[in-house]
Write a structure and sequence with these properties.
10% strand, transmembrane, elongated, 3 domains, Spore Coat Polysaccharide Biosynthesis Protein SpsA, Chain A, EC 2.4.1.-, transmembrane helix, alpha/beta, seven-stranded mixed beta sheet
């Protein structure tokens, strides 16, 4: 290179203005970048004390973003549609050089692009889950920045860089305040209000990158941060399960009010009404309760409204509702309000019998193992004191599983000795088809007809029973199909002949120490009815409406819809998309329901 040319270049380089604070020109960022907290390293010097030379002729009106790369200024020509994501993640500056446009020096006197007007459209409502799942949302980007800043904060403190740690802590608080404001007002953050916080945090994160802490130390701290977040996530998930279980066990205030008002209404009625209710003991009524030519259903429940929905939905969709007989069994607390409700409402001419289990004097601790276990101190500790063994999930310690109402299904032939066939319905189902065809199904010598649930591996026997126990392993197939309670056809004559209740007692006594199974009535049911169940068409019984996702085609074709799970339709935690199927069979126009559900 000629000596004169080199001299001219050295002279031009010496006359070049010093580097300045970077300027961002774009759809979102047109203002001058505020100086970061702390001092960023300057551009590296070339041999001879000269600064790095860049190109010329930058159009200030074009869509450019100016950043830092190893202390030097550079300009990137970017796609405006992806600008949000690029800016918020500006701490990751190791970009592909192929994306760089012409790199040009910036003069201190270079004009900045005029600020553009923001067109802000505020979405109605704030769905935090959607915001966090969207990688381009400002909420998600702020959370990502905060997580990374917290990791650098720990490293800065341990490296005794307290000034930088304080700057990070202050900026973390600012970003968290923005997120809190968005949650309070119930609509997402806008670009304009979050711009400064995002830019300042990006500058701090870049500065943390330039401090170049020991890589091994940084890696250990990052892993520790990830582990801490995973532990916290697990803890919150366990809390969610626990609180959901508690919510499912509690009686809503409206239902409590409903029972009390029904009881008051019962005792305040005038004598003619009371005589009309006593007329249910007529010979014609009693004959219907034993008539095997009619279609009999049994329901065991302490939930008046839920039982009403089962009866109402069954009669509404029946071709001949006057041929239906419902046998409802409840406890002493709900007996009067249950009678009051069903005696003053019409259900298509169906016959309805209300009984309380306390009247079955033969059902005592000397006969029923469950009642005997309930009196045992260790069982009471297991179910009611929480059991100090934290390895046992809370759902396995739910006292409702020792409720005799829940276990009456194993005594159906003794409860209704005159009947030969009956259909058992849980109180968390809705019927949307005529069920008369169930009574003509040939069970092929089996005791029960039920819908199998073995399409998934977690519904097989090994899911419910302890196959490490020799007694279980020696008698049952771990891959045998499970089935569901909720809608079951019972051949009571065959039940009595095979003494299924005696088999149930045998297994309940063997499980006194809770080593064969832990949860509910289904495990002893699987054991008691093993080899005695005929599989029914899945359309008869559709499960899962108390969870999250059920195939809509299954719901539309299903005869009985089962809200198994914690999210019952009468609870606030119930699935909104499935509540309408249940609500349409509730007489919300009834004065008592109006008082309890819609008055404050």
């Amino acid at each position: 290179m000629p000596r004169t040319q080199r001299a001219r270049e050295r002279s031009a380089a010496a006359a070049a203005p010093p580097p300045v604070t970077p300027v961002v020109s774009s759809r979102l960022l047109q203002r001058q970048l505020p100086p970061p907290l702390g001092t960023l390293p300057g551009p590296p010097e070339l041999p001879g004390g000269h600064s790095r030379h860049f190109g010329k002729n930058v159009d200030p009106g074009s869509d450019l973003i100016i950043g830092l790369d190893r202390g030097s200024l550079y300009i990137i020509r970017i796609d405006l549609q992806n600008l949000d994501r690029m800016i918020v993640r500006s701490y990751d500056l190791d970009r592909d050089p192929d994306n760089l446009a012409e790199i040009t020096p910036i003069s201190r006197n270079a004009p900045t692009q005029a600020r553009r007007n923001y067109a802000i459209t505020i979405p109605q409502g704030l769905n935090v889950t959607d915001e966090m799942l969207n990688p381009n949302s400002i909420t998600r980007q702020l959370v990502d920045q905060i997580s990374l800043a917290k990791a650098h904060l720990v490293i800065a403190k341990e490296s005794n860089n307290l000034q930088f740690a304080g700057d990070l802590a202050a900026q973390i608080q600012n970003s968290q305040a923005l997120l809190s404001a968005a949650a309070t007002r119930q609509y997402p953050l806008t670009t304009e209000e979050s711009e400064t916080s995002i830019r300042n945090m990006a500058a701090l994160l870049y500065q943390a990158q330039q401090l170049r802490y020991d890589a091994a130390t940084s890696l250990v701290k990052m892993k520790g941060q990830v582990q801490s977040l995973e532990d916290k996530s697990k803890e919150e998930a366990e809390k969610s399960i626990k609180f959901g279980q508690i919510a499912a066990e509690e009686l809503p205030k409206a239902l409590h009010c409903f029972g009390i008002r029904l009881t008051m209404d019962w005792f305040e009625r005038q004598s003619p009404d009371r005589r009309r209710i006593k007329d249910t003991t007529t010979t014609r009524y009693l004959d219907k309760l034993r008539d095997n030519s009619l279609h009999h259903f049994c329901i065991f429940s302490d939930n008046i409204l839920a039982a009403s929905v089962v009866v109402n939905s069954t009669t509404t969709n029946a071709n001949h509702p006057d041929r239906l007989v419902f046998h409802l069994v409840t406890d002493e607390v709900n007996y009067i309000p249950m009678r009051a409700w069903f005696s003053t409402n019409s259900f298509g001419g169906a016959t309805i019998e209300i009984q309380k289990m306390e009247d079955f004097t033969w059902l005592n601790a000397s006969y029923a193992p469950v009642l005997k276990q309930l009196q045992d101190a260790s069982t009471q500790s297991f179910y009611f004191s929480g059991n100090k063994d934290s390895r046992t999930p809370i759902k396995f310690r739910n006292p409702k599983y020792l409720s005799m109402l829940n276990h009456l299904r194993f005594y159906i032939p003794e409860l209704f000795p005159a009947l030969r066939m009956i259909v058992f319905l849980d109180d968390d189902v809705v019927v949307q088809k005529d069920l008369s065809a169930l009574f003509s199904i040939d069970l092929d010598g089996n005791v029960m007809g039920a819908v199998e649930t073995c399409t998934e591996t977690f519904h097989r026997f090994h899911k419910y029973l302890n196959f490490s126990h020799l007694l279980i392993r020696g008698h049952f197939d771990p891959d045998a199909c499970g089935w569901a309670f909720g809608m079951n056809v019972m051949d009571l004559s065959e039940w009595r002949r095979r003494d299924v209740t005696g088999i149930y007692h045998y297994w309940q006594e063997r499980n006194a120490d809770h080593t064969l199974w832990k949860l509910g009535t289904l495990p002893p049911g699987l054991l008691s009815f093993y080899g005695l169940v005929r599989s029914l068409d899945p359309k008869w019984h559709v499960l899962g409406l108390g969870y999250t996702n059920v195939d809509p085609s299954l719901i539309s074709d299903g005869a009985v819809l089962h809200y198994n799970g914690n999210m019952k339709p009468w609870l606030k935690i119930g699935m909104d998309k499935y509540k309408g199927l249940w609500d349409k069979y509730v007489h919300y126009s009834h004065p008592l329901l109006q008082q309890c559900f819609f008055s404050h």
